[in-house]
Design brief:
The complex is a heterodimer of chains A (about 220) and B (about 325). Helices cover about 25% and strands about 20% of the residues of chain A. Chain A folds into two domains: about 1-30; about 30-215, 2-Layer Sandwich (Alpha-Beta Plaits). By secondary structure, chain A is α+β, with helices and mostly antiparallel strands. Chain B has about 325 residues and is mainly alpha-helical. Chain B has a single domain, classed as Formate dehydrogenase/DMSO reductase fold (Up-down Bundle). The chains are: A alpha+beta (about 220), B mainly alpha (about 325).
């Protein structure tokens, strides 16, 4: 095998780059206390847009009218009649590993939980400055009109998850388009699906490392 | 058209924040200029420094009050001062505000020590006499206070830009030029506001050393501001994708594009420069003329804050 000086330099630089930037970040992301890092798959090929998940989320988490933790956005139809189809996109917290909303929060109210990777809000510390609302590239945060603090999906941490159930949206889905589980457990259903299927993560080019995976239907536009 | 320009889905921060950014610019700009003017030997007799003594503290305090009452929970604002986050621009800003205000008051006390002492004697006779001693002690450190205030004022001016450029949601705001642009335009607002107050409230002569000194900054600052605006928008254009889309949405047509071209560029930059060119040089420093030019500049600078804030939030990455 012959190696030109150019190849050698490229290889060395790539190695140095991984050493300096890539590896430590990846290591930090999987550093969880009990090896739990919750994530979700939204199978856009299975979703029928019935919005049962939206209703279940609102009911279980007592989300006031006028705001929403979870929305299913419909686009289309695409294709020629009769082969027309709609596309459905889940708009909710992505539970990023590299979290823009947490980085900007001036009090530490927005935080990522070390024990399970859920991006959460401490309502006691939140002053309502809306910096996190602006910083979230997915635009999923809102000021809760009742509590006056920033609010968003927490994977039902305080409700369903606390009593050992799956998140409300997952339980409500009639087509099993939502899969929830521990990404760091290779034997969990979600981890097994992720190694087999083609998925994408929204706006991943921003370096946010979301834990919301999507099974695409048609072209992925982000 | 008006309603849609001020209400859209991706808008998070609205009007009061633009006024807050404007007020901080005035405070940072006037403090910066006065520290430099003081180095030229000017003191409390200068109308420019008197204007700064009023403008710098009042605008920063007013700005902070606006900010606090803009919070969803205003009465929890004190939590900002007890839970610092080192990677949050806003949290570092809270820290900067406190140091800046402390140093600003200390520096002003030293510059106006004779006036403060005379005022105290007249109102309180011999009570609180220790204040004179305290200011006298502070005066020994003026050579340290002045450059420190200069640094903090420049940081404050840039902070308003960093606050917005930290938002990767919005390609137009997530722009490395923004802190420099806001700093320079803040100094520009310092020039306009100090001259405006000096020639009106403090009846300073338009040819005085202070006004001439501050006035010398005007044209270079405007030139740098125009260049930074060019960098700002070409950066977005060359970035392609959503960055380019953000540029066209902002200055390629629509309400905010008109605010930019007619308000920021026309009213705030070109018209004052034209007014400066026409007429005899002898009349150039007439108070009425200075008031008109400075008011136009200030309106343009306020409109720039509104334009950046609103147009910046129109396009999402």
């Amino acid at each position: 095998m012959s190696t030109t000086r150019r190849d050698f330099m490229v290889g060395m630089s790539a190695g140095a780059l991984i050493l300096l930037t890539g590896a430590p970040r990846a290591l930090a992301n999987s550093m969880t206390i009990k090896g739990v890092r919750y994530g979700m798959i939204h199978d856009e090929t299975a979703c029928i847009g019935c919005t049962a998940c939206m209703d279940a989320c609102r009911e279980v988490n007592q989300v006031p009218a006028g705001v929403a933790r979870l929305q299913i956005l419909r686009s289309g139809p695409v294709g020629e009649y009769p082969a027309q189809e709609y596309r459905f996109f889940r708009k909710s917290c992505q539970h990023c590993d590299n979290v823009p909303c947490v980085h900007v929060c001036p009090t530490g109210a927005s935080h990522i939980r070390a024990e399970d990777g859920i991006v959460d809000i401490n309502p006691d510390l939140c002053v309502g400055c809306r910096y996190c609302l602006a910083a979230c590239p997915y635009q999923v945060r809102f000021i809760n009109p009742v509590t006056r603090v920033a609010d968003k999906c927490d994977f039902c941490r305080k409700t369903n998850l606390a009593v050992g159930k799956q998140p409300a949206c997952v339980e409500a889905c009639p087509t099993k388009a939502l899969v929830f589980g521990n990404l760091d457990d290779p034997n969990s259903p979600i981890a097994k699906r992720l190694v087999q299927e083609t998925t994408y993560r929204y706006k991943q080019f921003l370096g946010t490392s979301p834990k919301m995976y999507r099974v695409p239907k048609g072209e992925v536009k982000s | 058209m008006w309603h849609d320009a001020f209400h859209f889905d991706s808008l998070v921060w609205d009007g009061p924040i633009a006024i807050y950014l404007f007020l901080l610019g005035i405070s940072a700009g006037s403090a910066t200029l006065s520290v430099l003017l003081r180095r030229q030997g000017a003191g409390s007799e200068s109308g420019i420094i008197k204007a700064t003594a009023l403008l710098a503290p009042v605008s920063v305090i007013l700005g902070l009050l606006i900010l606090i009452f803009h919070l969803a929970r205003p009465w929890t604002f004190w939590k900002l001062m007890f839970h610092y986050q080192f990677d949050s621009v806003m949290s570092m800003g809270v820290m900067l505000f406190q140091v800046y205000m402390a140093v600003l008051f200390a520096w002003l006390a030293v510059v106006f020590r004779a006036e403060i002492e005379a005022l105290r004697r007249r109102l309180l006779v011999d009570k609180f006499a220790f204040v004179d001693g305290l200011i006298g002690w502070l005066a020994r450190f003026e050579r340290l206070l002045a450059p420190l205030l200069l640094l903090l004022a420049v940081l404050l001016g840039a902070y308003t830009g960093f606050l917005l450029s930290a938002l990767k949601t919005y390609p137009m705001l997530n722009n490395p030029i923004l802190p420099a642009l806001f700093l320079v335009s803040g100094i520009s607002s310092g020039v306009a506001s100090t001259i405006l107050l000096a020639v009106t409230l403090f009846r300073e002569d338009g040819h005085s050393r202070g006004v001439s000194f501050v006035h010398r900054f005007e044209r270079p600052i405007v030139a740098i501001e125009l260049f930074l605006l060019l960098c700002f928008f070409t950066g977005l254009y060359f970035g392609g994708g959503q960055r380019e889309a953000a540029m066209w949405a902002a200055i390629g047509g629509g309400f905010w594009s008109q605010v930019f071209w007619f308000g920021v560029i026309g009213l705030g930059i070109l018209l004052p420069q034209l007014l400066g060119l026409v007429g005899s040089p002898a009349k150039a420093h007439q108070p009425a003329r200075l008031v008109l030019i400075c008011s136009l500049s200030l309106v343009g600078i306020l409109l720039l804050r509104y334009f950046i804030l609103y147009a910046g939030q129109m396009t999402v990455m």
